[in-house]
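Here's a chain:
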Amino acid sequence: MTAQMPIRVPRNAQYKVGWTFLDRKTREPLDISDWTFALDVKYSAGFGSPIASATFDNIDAPAGSVDVTINGADFATVRGSQETVRLAYDCLVQDSDGVVVAMVEGVVLLTPGVSTL
């Protein structure tokens, strides 16, 4: 079963958060050694090319943790710069045995942002 999780990305900043993958039965961290991750954002599921893709870094494989980053600047071509726009995403994971699963999916809420640096 794929987990559902909304993500809020400000146009003027980054979405950066640490994810930890746990065994559903034992709640122990999964060893994510040799796993491959892909997270794409699109206007809707299965439609067109990705608007943006996440990067995955600071991987602590034995602890099952990874940092996920989506850059708000990647959404410059998305209309509605002064409103919240709903987009779709999913995160595919390929484990060390080559099995591919959709671990997380949901809505990306692209927000206008206010501050600048």
